[in-house]
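Session log. Operator J.P. requested a structure for one protein chain; no other inputs attached. Running the standard single-chain path with token output.
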Amino acid sequence: MKHANEQANGILPVSAPPRLASAYGLPAERGVLIARLDPRGPAARSGLRPGDIIMAVAGQPVKNLGELRGEVGRYKAGETVELAVRRERASATVKVTLGEAR
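Structure written below.
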């Protein structure tokens, strides 16, 4: 069963609370945490993992879940978008081919 906030690309994103942001060495209230990940979805196939924090979409910083949805919403299913993520204390870039919205 899918959670109501789960995105088509197989992730359950939540805005990163200040305490979590601080633990990752991020500015307060910046980024979106991947709380859960569908192992069969496009996000997992691209290499994203639970615990990753999405910092930017195609070079546009995202501070919260609303901004993430807005930036991803600019693209269509089948298009590839580059995400800047924090994984533990390292930065990475991940390319995700977007799936259909559900």
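Operator note: Residues 1-8 have pLDDT under 50 and may be disordered.
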